[in-house]
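Batch manifest line 404
LIGAND: pyridoxal-5'-phosphate
JOB: complex structure
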Amino acid sequence: MAIQVSNRAQSLAPSQTLKFSARAKELAAEGKSIVALTAGEPDFSTPNVICEAAIKAIKAGHHGYTMNTGLPALRERIAAKIKRDQGLDVGLDQIVVSNGAKQSIGFSMLATLNPGDEVIIPTPYWVSYPEMVRFAEGAPIFVRTSYESAFKMSAAQLEQAITAKTRGVILCSPSNPTGSCYTHEELLELAEVLRAHPDVMIYSDEIYEYLVYDGEAPSLFTVAPDLFDRGVIINGFSKGFAMTGWRLGYMVAPAEIAKGLAKIQSQETSAPSTISQYAGIAAYDMPLSDLEPMRQTFGSRRDRIVKRLKAMPGIKCQTPPGAFYVFPDISELLGRVTDYGVSIHTSTDFCMEALEHAGLGMVPGDAFGEPNGIRLSFAASDDQLEEALSRLDAFVGGLTSTSS
Ligand SMILES: Cc1ncc(COP(=O)(O)O)c(C=O)c1O
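JOB STATUS: finished
ARTIFACT:
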């Protein structure tokens, strides 16, 4: 019997970020010296108090399924957190806990989109957004932002992108891949546009909210709580609490949307991991100040990496206020030739050559819909960062312009 891979599976693009980190691992396994700044996860251990809570849950016999939408005790903590941090009053029926924020976003799309619905996605975007919209039979509509605007969508750009078919807009602040954060004023301007379009849902991915180094990264719904009647907050534990492997995230939305999502979840995965949910309770019971050492470490690494990038000829780099990524502009280097004769036309060429020949792992802006950028993660040790930047410096130094 011939096997079949569905059109749906075939039409999905594989994650470009995973592709580059997989190639980096392959080269390392072959014995090559590789320094990878491709990680999308903190290089820290989960705080001990969280680990202890999980061990306690196992020993106490919490081995079964939980409620489909998550343990009430965890949803209570999430509601209290949403009140404290976002200033919103939400009921437990508005919260659905999932196996990671990624699943929360994917299920949110499935729960809210009909075929042909347009969803506005500012570029550079997190790799999974367009595919998740497509998987839900929606149409991603890209709004290209620029280095000069710190990769933030303006109110005018948003207004211009909205059509009669627009059903949603995705905001990610602090952003993966750029680390940009919308300010209070910028969100007010976006909110004003959105108020005039009541059919547009707003998906706000706030997963990096605790990794902010300069100023604040408020939620759109803190600035404009009236818009939460068609809002979906996406959040989770992966980044702020160094819990990527625990697979725990959630969405908070109007009860009807939460109910739709819960139905999808009930048929697809039942409920998130019980052990991880107990860990999540401990995470939200922890004082936020316990996360400070990790945040400060990321902050000082950011300063170091930005300083070195700024000193490299042909590279422009802004200082990202949040997350753990820098997204320098390499447009000046495109069109150059390596010292072994290969032409670099795209950010993908740039990263592929740097990986294969300099042993340096980065992710091309092409993966995020921005051809002029590259993403470097500073979720790496000081030594790794120094070595990676020296390799980048040497690689860039070896590029010559074809006219010279
Ligand atoms: C912007 C953004 N949203 C969501 C996620 C998914 O996080 P989780 O580990 O909770 O699925 C990631 C992870 O890389 C991310 O960068």
